[in-house]
């Protein structure tokens, strides 16, 4: 496995040092882009999984954290500026990637702030080894959009196969990543302030979805193939297995099914939690508020 770090000229970040981590999966090398900003104790900042996933969604939060931490934010394999090969994207890939990346980049247990679907991967790694000293989960989820809507595993698999197909798949993917559809989805369950969903904002998100190979990991997420756990009980069991301090930030306008899952999580003993404005994209829409509510937890000894 290669752990070479190479500087890149990419300028699409949030002002930090942009580098690439070369990672091997099943004899295929993937280029994973990450960005580092600030000085201090290390903090890993993980964006959520989505069709528009990129480290830029946590960029403003990274800048707010940088005065007190050395923040490292990544583009997950298959998303953002990282490689997007036509892999069968599944939880094992991301579990191994996260474990290898943390081991390669950090030499002590670190603080991690994870948004959305990244939560399960963080928790599973924390159960396996002492990788993290503190965990903050922002609008945590564990079930993909289609399963949340009630689609069976079989139906989700058929949809995933169609999107992966060469011609029909590209057409279906483009229909579900038009700017109008992205705007609709943001208004429905990602942002709460419609004024922030500007044409330029949506165009930036759309450009992310149009990169070569973008449909493969996106289809895996939407159809539930990136769900690291299959049941709520499994998700809660991960948390119950840990002694690491955990804080959960919930958007008060989260979709009902997602909010039910978050409520079950914060009902567990020893979990610190707070409800703030926003929905599933609270880390991008309200980064200043997120900082305000997590800062004391992050800086406490």
What does this structure look like?
- With about 300 residues, the protein is α/β, with parallel strands linked by helices.
- It contains 13 helices and 9 strands.
- The chain has helices spanning about 60-65, 90-105, 120-130, 145-150, 155-165, 170-175, 180-190, 200-210, 215-220, 230-240, 255-265, 280-285, 285-300; strands spanning about 5, 15-25, 30-35, 40-45, 70-75, 110-115, 130-140, 245-250, 270-275.
- Strand 8, helix 11 and strand 9 (about 270-275) form a beta-alpha-beta unit.
Order of helices and strands: EEEEHEHEHEHHHHHHHEHEHH
Q: Using only CA atoms, what is the Rg?
A: 18 Å
Q: Would you count the extended β strands for me?
A: 9
Largest sheet data: 9 strands, mixed
Q: How are the strands of the largest sheet arranged?
A: 1-2-3-5-4-6-7-8-9
Compute the number of helices: 13
Strand content: 15-25%
What are the low-pLDDT stretches, counting only 5+ consecutive residues below 50?
Answer: 2-10
**Helicity level:** 40-55%
Shape annotation: globular
> Which whole number gives the mean pLDDT?
93
Distance between the termini: 35 Å
The secondary-structure class comes to alpha/beta
């Amino acid at each position: 496995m290669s752990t070479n770090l190479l500087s890149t000229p990419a300028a699409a970040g949030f002002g930090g040092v942009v580098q690439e981590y070369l990672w091997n999966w099943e004899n295929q090398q993937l280029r994973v882009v990450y960005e580092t900003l600030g000085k201090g104790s290390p903090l890993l900042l993980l964006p959520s999984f989505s069709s528009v996933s990129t480290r830029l969604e946590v960029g403003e939060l990274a800048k707010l954290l940088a005065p007190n931490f050395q923040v490292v934010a990544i583009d997950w394999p298959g998303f953002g500026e990282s490689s997007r090969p036509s892999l069968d994207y599944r939880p094992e890939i991301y579990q191994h990637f996260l474990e290898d990346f943390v081991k390669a980049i950090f030499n002590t247990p670190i603080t991690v702030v994870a948004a959305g679907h990244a939560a399960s991967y963080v928790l599973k790694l924390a159960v396996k080894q002492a990788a993290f000293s503190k965990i903050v989960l922002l609008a945590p989820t564990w079930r993909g959009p289609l399963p949340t809507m009630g689609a069976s595993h079989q139906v989700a698999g058929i949809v995933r196969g169609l999107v992966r197909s060469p011609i029909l798949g590209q057409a279906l993917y483009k229909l579900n990543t038009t700017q109008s559809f992205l705007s609709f989805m943001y208004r429905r369950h990602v942002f709460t302030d419609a004024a922030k969903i500007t044409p330029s904002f949506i165009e930036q998100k759309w450009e992310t979805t149009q990169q070569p190979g973008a449909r493969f990991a996106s289809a895996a997420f939407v159809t539930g193939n990136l769900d690291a756990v299959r049941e709520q009980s499994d998700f809660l069991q991960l948390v119950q297995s840990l002694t690491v301090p955990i804080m959960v930030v919930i958007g008060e306008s989260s979709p009902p099914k997602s909010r039910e899952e978050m409520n079950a999580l914060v009902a567990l003993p020893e979990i610190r939690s707070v409800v703030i404005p926003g929905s599933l994209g609270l880390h991008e829409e309200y980064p200043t508020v997120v900082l305000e509510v997590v800062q004391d937890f992050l800086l406490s000894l």
